[in-house]
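Design job #97: recover the sequence.
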């Protein structure tokens, strides 16, 4: 068994060599079944290879988060500007019209709420695969607590989901949680993202960090970055730009879109960075233009 003392440090990420992905454009999915590749094509734009996922699952632990007080008013209006809507079964069913063409990523796990604030048991299943299929999910998401007390249980939930979703050709999104006591270092994200991919995640949601290009290179499946707490728009766009330039395949962003002064402008600006390679400054002009028009 591998141990954590005396190991030779990983160092050679071959950053100048593209990953082997003959036959299909999504990283790590060249040998997947047709159904899996078809769903991945709904998530990752075939032209850019990247995705804008809009996360609005915050209420499952936080209740009515700022900006998401009325999901039914906010999220459907943003759907035309994103590739994927990520939420819980309860809110997708109750607030998102089924006629919306964006792909859906359904969260399958619950965690402790902010009132109890104890992630040590690693959470549990909030939605089973049959229910996700009934909702026509294009992707299912599981939160993991790497390096924290809930690690073992959350990895079990990930492994069980990855096996069940593979049976039906549905990609699993493994979410790297960063709790209060967890590091946000290159070393942590290298380990956490790789562990999730090794345990079957087809897509990994993580955070941007210094050294991100090594994190992305060492992860055999696409990484999408979360936005985290609300930043000024230019900073959020800069973070997204750097992440894409350093190997991320998109964002799974929430608060930096729906808490913006102009969520539609921010969603469109992020889309320009993710799909068209705009710099943060160029994308900010798009944001301002949409904001001034509204
Ligand atoms: C985290 O577990 C949730 O999936 C959030 O939806 C996620 O953190 C993305 O939201 P934000 O960009 O607001 O951090």
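Job complete. Output follows.
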């Amino acid at each position: 068994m591998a141990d954590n003392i005396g190991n030779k440090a990983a160092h050679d990420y071959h950053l100048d060599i593209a990953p082997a992905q003959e036959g299909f454009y999504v990283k790590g999915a060249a040998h997947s079944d047709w159904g899996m590749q078809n769903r991945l094509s709904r998530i990752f734009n075939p032209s850019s290879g990247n995705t804008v996922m809009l996360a609005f699952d915050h209420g499952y632990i936080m209740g009515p988060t700022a900006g998401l007080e009325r999901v039914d008013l906010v999220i459907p209006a943003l759907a035309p500007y994103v590739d994927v809507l990520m939420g819980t079964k309860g809110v997708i069913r109750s607030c998102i019209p089924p006629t919306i063409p964006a792909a859906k990523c359904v969260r399958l796990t619950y965690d402790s709420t902010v009132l109890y604030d104890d992630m040590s048991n690693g959470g549990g299943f909030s939605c089973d695969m049959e229910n996700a299929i009934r909702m026509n999910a294009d992707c299912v998401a599981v939160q993991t607590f790497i390096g924290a007390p809930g690690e073992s249980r959350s990895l079990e939930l990930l492994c069980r989901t990855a096996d069940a979703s593979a049976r039906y050709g549905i990609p699993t999104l493994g979410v790297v949680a960063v709790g209060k006591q967890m590091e946000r270092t290159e070393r942590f994200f290298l380990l956490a993202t790789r562990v999730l991919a090794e345990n079957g995640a087809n897509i990994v949601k993580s955070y941007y960090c210094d050294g991100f290009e090594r994190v992305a290179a060492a992860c055999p499946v696409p990484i999408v970055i979360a936005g985290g707490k609300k930043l000024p728009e230019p900073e959020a766009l800069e973070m997204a730009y750097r992440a894409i330039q350093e190997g991320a395949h998109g964002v799974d962003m929430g608060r930096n879109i729906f808490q913006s002064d102009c969520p539609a402008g921010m969603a469109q600006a992020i889309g320009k960075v993710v799909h068209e390679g705009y710099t943060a400054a160029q994308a900010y002009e798009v944001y301002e233009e949409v904001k001034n028009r509204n």
